[in-house]
């Protein structure tokens, strides 16, 4: 029953396709040769795709984890009585982070922290913050008022109220904010390759510069599958977290 | 049991509760009755310190509530509210276990208590323990809500319009259940409502409130028969006053002892209204009355109702 459910779910097939292309891109050589007979080499070979993926995964994971921790913490703060006054300020700051194009963040960050992974992580972090804060605030404010009042009236401490009532009830909405921001971050991370970070965007920019369309295709397909697969994983997690009320 | 002594609360310039004093003895079901904004909910919520008092003191069993931490105090006081506030992500069993678990009761004792309470509210523990709140009807949810409030066997139960959002038929059943549970457990209850009929039905004492003060305090019958002023008279309603009186007065003191009549007997604690209703339905003017053991003790007659 369980196995059939897994076999029938697209998540397995997307995952397998992604893994296959990541490890065995050269299997597409004949196909690409037919489409681009004059280009040599057809498969990007300066780094392995697996290494590029792992590097990008690390960048996204570090930035998203930091943005999730900071974003949720800020959302918790502005939804407590003590922090309510800071809410407009936090919102404005997060919006600025969102409207600032990541390319511009990179341009500003490089002179300060140098080339490579660091400016990319900073740009991704800032860019991820808004959806996380917004969803977390919505989730925390959506906790039924009656449940909170009952919790207080029964003598739960502020902390117990938070982790037994607020957090579990807001979790699905918080998670969907993280899901959106991670998916966007996977796509956005590729521009980190312009400042020397290793990502699946590296073959894309390489191909654009050297006029080698197959490289662009290979990078783009892998990034796309990476994002779709991650999104599907989060969807699973969300379904698992959602309260039984459905 | 509870002594509220000269308590006041203001929001800005508005004095919501104004030097209010009230003493509720153990085992009483005291209804705070009044229209919205009269300060009845605020008074209730000052007892478990959800709202801090500006002045005055509240003592629970002789102990000033301000001398205990709010959390410890609230775990000793049951609290049921109109919006019920069951935790949607917890099962019925987990919801009812909330306070016993906060008090670190052993698991076995918690489980026994949940079963006991579900049975008290006539919810079959086997089918209800594992359900989630959204699988229950409104009436069942409030039963669980009140069960949760009673879980740790609190000294005092505070109820803030608990049945106001429930349909009339279910409300009627819940009121009957609360009356039964009050009788069997002997809990002290402070109950807030704006519904005069609910107050008459449940209360052992009624405090009618207006503009943050108690304008009259007394037994239900007392308030109907001797309203203290025009406000109370208007509140209890001149219209239908006779019917309200009949719904409060018991047939016990209108009984013709020793007589007998045909038909299904009424219990001694039935109201005059119940008797009239039964007479109308059965097309008779005499109905036998029995005591709690089912022995016929006399007859209630139509002419005696309006005596």
What are the defining features of this structure?
heterodimer, A: 246 residues, mainly alpha, MetI-like fold, B: 307 residues, alpha/beta, Rossmann fold, CBS domain Like, six-stranded mixed β-sheet, 14 strands, 38% helix
CATH architecture identity of chain A: Orthogonal Bundle
What is the CATH architecture annotation of the largest domain in chain B?
Answer: 3-Layer(aba) Sandwich
Q: DSSP strand (E) fraction of chain B?
A: 25-35%
Provide the CATH superfamily of chain A: MetI-like
E-strand count of chain A: 0
Strand content of chain A: under 5%
Rounded to an integer in angstroms, the radius of gyration calculated over CA atoms of chain B is 21 Å
CATH superfamily of the largest domain in chain B: P-loop containing nucleotide triphosphate hydrolases
Question: What's the quaternary structure here?
Answer: heterodimer
The succession of helices and strands of chain A, N to C, reads HHHHHHHHHHH
How much is the average pLDDT of chain B? 90
Helix percent of chain A reads over 70%
Number of domains of chain A: 1
Q: Could you name the CATH class of chain A?
A: Mainly Alpha
Query: Low-confidence parts of chain A, pLDDT < 50 over ≥5 residues?
Result: none
Strand order of the biggest β-sheet of chain B: 6-7-8-3-9-10
The low-confidence parts of chain B are none
Separation of the first and last Cα atoms of chain A = 22 Å
- Shape descriptor of chain B reads globular
List the total number of helices of chain B. Answer: 14
